[in-house]
Amino acid sequence: MKDFIKVSNEVYYADTPIIKIENHDMVFLKNHVKDTEKKRIRICTHLNEQDSLHEMFIVLSKETYIRPHKHFDKSESLHVIEGSADVVFFNDEGIIIDIFSLSHYSPQSSFYYRINKPIYHTLVVNTDYFIFHETTKGPFNKSDTRIAPWSPEEKNNIEVKRFMLTLNQSIKNFFSNIK
Predict the structure, then answer these.
(1) Distance of CA 35 to CAs 6, 29, 83, 85, Å?
(2) Cα separation of 63 and 79, whole Å?
(3) Contact present, 71 and 50 (Cβ < 8 Å)
(4) Which residue in 85, 99, 142, 177 has a CA-CA distance of 20 to 30 Å to 76?
(5) pLDDT tens digits along 147-177
(6) Does the N-terminal peptide bond of residue 68 adopt cis geometry, omega within 30 degrees of 0?
(7) How far apart are CA 114 and CA 107, in angstroms?
(8) How far apart are CA 2 and CA 106, in angstroms?
(9) What are phi and psi of 161, to 5 degrees?
(10) Is 128 helix (H, G, I), strand (E, B) or coil?
C-alpha cells in the first residue's frame, strides 16, 4: 500500500497522479477489514472529500452493518468485484420495496446498479467479503445523506442483531416468493 495514505483504520487515499489498484491492494483490505470498528474499509481514488467525483474500492465483511440511508442531490453506482450481497430498497416507512442479488459470478445476479433518486437502501453481505467499486458525486457533505429513522444505530448491537435477523428472513421470503 505504498501509493496510499492512511487517513483512519477504515480509509486510505491514493497519493499518486496516476492511480492503479492491484490485487494485492484488495488482499490488504481483506486482511485488515476485521480490524476496523465498522467492519468496512476503503481506498479512495479521489483526491479528497471536496473532489467533485468520488470513487472508492470498498471491502465489507459478512459482519458489516450498513444502516439504511438515502442520498439527496446525488446518484450512486456500485460495480461488484468479488463476493455476493443483497441490496435492499425501502420506502420511507421502512417497508421493503425491492431487493437485488449482487454477485461477480452468478448469472442470476446483477453485478452493477445505479441509484438516481433518494431511496433508502442497505447492503447485506452473503460471503466472507464483498468487494465493490462505488462512484458518487462529491464533495462529501453529511447533510446530503439521510439515515433511516426506523433503523437501529450502528452502536446498538442488540437492536442491530435483531434488525439483521429480521432483514435476512425478509430477504429469504422475498426470493422464495419470486421463484
Answers:
(1) 14, 10, 20, 21
(2) 20
(3) no
(4) 177
(5) 999 999 999 999 999 999 999 999 999 988 8
(6) no
(7) 19
(8) 34
(9) -60, -45
(10) coil
For residue 111, the one-letter residue type is F
What does the DSSP assignment read for 32-71? Answer: HGGGSTTSEEEEE-SSSTT-SEEEEEEEEETT-----EEE
> Which uninterrupted H or E stretch holds 158?
helix 157-177
Which pTM value belongs to this model? 0.94
Mean pLDDT throughout 124-151? 94
Strand partners, 59: 41, 131
Spatial CA neighbour of 123 closest among 61, 73, 30, 31: 61
Quick one: DSSP state of residue 92?
Answer: T
| Residue 43: burial class (beta carbons within 10 Å; 0-12, 13-18, 19+) | buried
- Class for the domain spanning 4-177: mainly beta
Amino acid at 35: D
Whose grid coordinates read 480490524? 35
Instruction: Please state the three-class secondary structure of 76-118 as a single string.
Output: EEEEEEECEEEEEEECCCCCEEEEEEEECCCCCCECEEEECCC
